[in-house]
Amino acid sequence: MAQKLTTIYIVRHGETEWNVRRIIQGHSDSPLTKKGIAQAKALARRFKTLHFDAIFSSDLVRAKRTADIIALEKRLAVETTRVLREQFFGKYEGAKRDDYYSLFEKWNEMTDRKRHRFKISEDVESNEEAVIRFITFLREIAVAYSGKTVLVVSHGAIMRYFLIHLGHMTYDDMLAFDNRGLLKLESDGVDFFIKEIKGLRKIKSVYGKRRRSSDIR
Fold first, then answer.
1. What pLDDT is recorded for position 138?
2. Residue 180 falls within a domain, yes or no?
């Protein structure tokens, strides 16, 4: 018997204080701003008439708080997991974003394959390492909740790398998710079929340059 497709909604957490201050977050945490809480409530309204069979979230406070707000009227417990966390930035967490990306001097000379595997230092998770744990979890829940509908609350960078990994876009497209950005997909536990994308926007490159850009994490 063919595996039934599982519908998975993936959303980015609401705005945080470190988002506003343009600080690298990664596995470190920063509380939602008032705007971030309002964004989570807007997602709750969007999903008001949609039935979820389960809600999963990164265990980081910014994602869990967003998930709790969405789950409030659903009468569902939020299940948290480390594998849905943002990319780990090691010693660079807490650094200014522009300072961090100024270290990527040869980024523009790399192919997307090399960019996906690039590590600025050994204690930093590569984009590929981050997205592999993310995809593994999505495949597991697609099998466990076959034919059902699931919500996942995670983070902007890992959602972006997911689309790049699937070949849906490239690094040169310079697109990233807004807070409360959304992906709707279907999966049989192996393949992913993108059905809807909300909140992707064009950003400016900051790699190797000390210049401001739109927030992408």
1. 98
2. yes
Number of domains in the chain: 1
Task: Compute the average pLDDT of residues 131-153.
Answer: 98
| CATH number of the domain residue 139 falls in | 3.40.50.1240
Average pLDDT, the chain: 92
Burial per residue of 134-165, b for 16 or more beta-carbon CB atoms within 10 angstroms, e otherwise? bbebbbebbeebeebbbbbbbbbbbbbbbbbb
pTM of the model: 0.92
**pLDDT higher than 90, residue 106:** no
Is 86 among the residues known to form the active site?
A: yes
Write down the catalytic residue from 17, 73, 86, 168. Answer: 86
Catalytic pick among 13, 116, 155, 165: 13
The answer as to whether 217 is a domain residue is no
User: Does 89 fall in a domain?
Assistant: yes
Q: Is 168 a catalytic residue?
A: no
